[in-house]
Amino acid sequence: MNASLIIEAIGQNTVSLCTLHRRRMDSIIPGLGELVLGDESQFKRWGVWEITENRARELHARMDYSNANSKGSRGIMACYVLEGGKRYLVKSPVSWRRVDKYVCHVNEAGNIVRE
Predict the structure, then answer these.
(1) Domain CATH number, residue 84
(2) What is the pLDDT of residue 41?
C-alpha cells in the first residue's frame, strides 16, 4: 500500500538561489561553487530518505507552487509517495527555526506511522 506525504518546503528560494550561483561558479572554475557555497544539504531543511540496511537514499519530490508567496519562501509544498514495507527518515520544517525529524513507515491500511 502506498501513502502520500506533503511537507512545506520552507526556504525553497534560498536553496534555488544557492544552486544557481553554485552552478555559475562551477562553470568558471569546476568545484568553485562547492568550495564557496557548500553543499545543497546545508541549506535544504526538508526531505525524505528511504532507509535501507546500510544507507539512506533521498527521494525525489514533486513540488507544488500553487500556494507560494511572491518570494518563494513559504507555501511551496513538496509531495512524496511512500511505499509500504519500507522505512523512511523525514525532515519536516515546522517553522523557520524548528525542524521535526522522525522515522516512519506505511502500514497495511495506507497510513503513515511514526516509529
Answers:
(1) 2.60.40
(2) 66
